[in-house]
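User: Some background: our group keeps a shared notebook of sequences we're curious about, and every so often someone picks one and asks for a predicted structure to add to the entry. Today it's my turn. The entry only has the sequence so far, pasted here. Could you supply the structure so I can complete it?
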Amino acid sequence: MNLNAGSVHSKATSMSDDATATTEFVYDALFSFDDLPNRKQKQQTRHTQKPQEDRAGSDQLQLGWYQVAKAPVPFNEDVFWKVLERWILEAPSIIPPVLKVEILHDTGEAGQNVHDSTSPFTLKREQLLLDSKTPFRAIQRKLLPRRSNKDPMMKEQIYFVRSLSMPSSCGEPSEEKKDSSLSKSARSYAIFAPVTITTTSSSSSSSLFNNNNIPQEQDEIQIMKASLPFYYPKIRGFRYGYIPDPEGEESDDADEDSDHRGEEQYEYEDREGVVEPNSSNTSASINEAAPANKAKALCKRFGWITLDLLLAGDEGEFTEKMQYAFKELFKKLYKWGVNTTKGFTKSRIQHDVMVPKDLYLKTYSRLKGMYAQKWMQAWPEKTDPRKFVFEDIAIASWLVALWELEREDECEHRHEHAPPQPQLQQQFQRKQTFVDLGCGNGLLTHILNEEGHKGIGVDIVARKVWDSYGVGTQLEARTLIPNEVELEDIDWIIGNHADELAPWIPIIAMRAKPMARFVVIPCCFFDLNGSRYSFPKGYPEGKYKAYQSYICSIIEICGYELQTESLRIPSTKNMALVGMRMKKEKQSGQDRHDNIDAQGSSNDDCRAKVDDLVRKSGLFVARLSDKDKQALQRSKYTAKMLAKENGCRKSTF
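Assistant: Of course. Here's the predicted structure to add to the notebook entry:
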């Protein structure tokens, strides 16, 4: 097996008016979990590879670093460190079960010996982890789980080290051999090791490898298996490495003397890691096209990334899930490095604009614990509860958190302009009222009612699950003609995937007395007249974005200041369009309600524009419910059969 065999995938891309052929690197990792000592012990075969000698002295655990993955990469060491920096700070993006990360200690890049009073390990154990290298940075962080009632919090120690080394073979102990010919090649490592595990069942914490003693070998793994979160590998440590390729550095210098390298040069390249462009390769390539000015950088091997595990052979066989997790993380390290080299920033939707992430997740965790399991088990509808239950819980969590912030803002604003008055304080702590138009299964309405918000849900037809909510949940089945809807004393109007009512939500809110706030989450594409929306020619960003723009134009005509939020829900239609205040700046001494009333009374031209828009759209025609459609089909079928029977009778006379 050739451990250094990377590959280059050749593809033509147009970088100018003249077509220019470029090549791009392909992810080609080699894994060797089957060669680990714990796997070989299970197969009762003699393990011929001896783990690395302990350079710190005679340690009773006899640990060794074993390399399990290696892949050539088209990026340099600086990119490797940039990615690892992001990984440490953005743990939830790498480990989904983690809610957030707290940095407890960071020595920074001071270039000093980082073993001090803050180190969680004994000097001997630290040297085992560091493999007799001197770290230039040490970081201790705390990983807080999303499921705080089920998964434990844990602490993790991270070291950044660099040393001169030779590339080692995959599946063998990471035996390092210094060579003067590779004086430029400094192998870099980011080492991760568990420190303290605090369980949820007890306030006590178990410290692995604490400063007083090293636990017995057989007890250490048992402690990790019992105390570490399910997502964390039950091993004493692991590390990601980077090995520069001296030839890659030299070729980089040579490339500066030429305009570009032709495709033919790659076909006959004899360097390791480069194959003929027309050769077959089963690895999946990174599909993002490289910018023209970085094409050369992305088709050369700058080095290798590696993954090593600190093992003693007593960890037990790695499960398929754990191997899969390591492989996915290794691939993600490669992809992030490639994208960083390209200067590529993934276009991500901005979450948590109106509601802080911590508040939302705290609220979501609470509501999920109260409602998820109950309705997952008792869902009477044919729809998939895994989607609808969790989606409605997520939307309810966001609304409850948003309304909590709104009440706090009202109280603070009142206190700034007037002395505290118990009656006014009680008034503005009153929970918001709402109407949920097109409420569907009604679960969102039910949760908001249960959370103390008075409101009603309306839909064209009742659902089976409505009877399960109880008398505390107000739901109505009736057909609405939106141009005739008049609401009074309602704080919020909700349009969650409200179909043909979606474009009407801001209009109904503006016409309410007093003016209401609203949130609309568009889904299906309907016009104001109830028919399917006709898209204008050309919508390069897609139909959903074009329909959002249509709803936003109505919000603009209604005079609201538009706010948007990408909701954390299991749906691609997750954009919430919110109107909480009118576009005119709030004047001093006015709260939101005073501002909306003043705007409503002085904004007759806005109402006139809305009336004109409604008049031009034509008469709204409500769609038939599924129940009515079935009844109509049955009546048509009956009439057809009667006509056929009458025809047969006439023919007999």
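Suggested note for the entry: The first strand starts at residue 7 and ends at 13. The chain has three domains: 7-342, 431-622, 627-653.
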